[in-house]
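re the bet — no i am not wrong, look at it urself. input seq straight from the record:
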Amino acid sequence: MKDPFILWEDIERFPANRDIIQTLLFRSLDYDNISYGGLKRLSMLAKDDFNASVFFDSLLIDRQTETLERLSNLSVKGVGEFYRKNGKEHDYLRDELKDLYLENLNEYDYLALKDLHNAFVETDLSETIDQAYFPLRSTMLKAIFDDFELYFEAEDLLLTDVEYNIRETLDGYASDGVKKVIADLSEKVDRGLFKKVFKREDMDQYTISEYASMLISKYLDPEPISDFVAKEISEYISTIYEQREEYISHYFDDADTCSLYYISPELIKEGTLSINDDNENFSDIQRLKTINGLISAASVALSFTPAAAYTIPLDLLDLYNGIKEESKISIMMKDATKSLYASYTDAIDNYINEIISAISQSNKVSRYYIIQKFNEDF
């Protein structure tokens, strides 16, 4: 059977065959398939027999040498895996590994200590390693988080600058657009009955409200606003991506593949630009113009009748209405201008607020992920 454990028992049971059995044990058997634990057991059995003790101890030393040579070709992680699985059996390894890895832990850099920590976690060597590893890790993380805090502040300042530039540009767009709308609309409002009849232009076929809507579509088109905001926000997101990737790539290998580190480029679609097209102020102007136009038309018609007695009062009434209309329309145009500007800028503000809010929220989520990643994997 070539079983060394049974043969060793046979030495006691068959003393007459002792020499033959020892020859089998020492010269004929192959111990390569016997585990290190088995060799230790044979060494213990032979401790009172000098020759047998020397023989089995030499097998133990040879096996230790073979194991150490094999481990020398492994990474620290591989050595740790072997020790975790076989440390109790290969009890000599603890002292060997302490001499190899743990003599000068304070001279290790962080990555080397991290490799040791990960390799020997939950072994009887981890406590010694962690006494050096965790203080250094805490110091490193604090320095990294302090740097990131400054970096995040720089990101926030950049976003503030981008938002300010967007608001200033769009406020100028709104202000210029409203001025152009009111300027062109004023020309139509000023057109009296005579011009409408004898110097007719295209604008005369529209009501004031209709013409105002046309001018608003022309001078206050929301599409350029959306395009401008999308361009500015896209540039901001792209800039942040490039800066973060360069920063994070020093620490993590997935900096160029994991989207969770970054602000989502889809955020430019978050905002909705809803322009209130309520032209009630312009409708009021139209109603006033219509009523006074009818009075003026009646005045003109009656002035050609024989009833001269009616002419003077109607002329005076027409003059009165003209003066009254000009004063009223002036006030109504100012109110319409204010209302149009307020409505337009409120819509723009809400639009910008939605996008900036979405970016701020995405910033919080991505920053939390970065910090969590460092706490878990650094």
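see?? Residues 192-199, 291-305, 307-324 have pLDDT under 50 and may be disordered. told u. also Residues 311-377 form the longest helix (67 residues). so pay up
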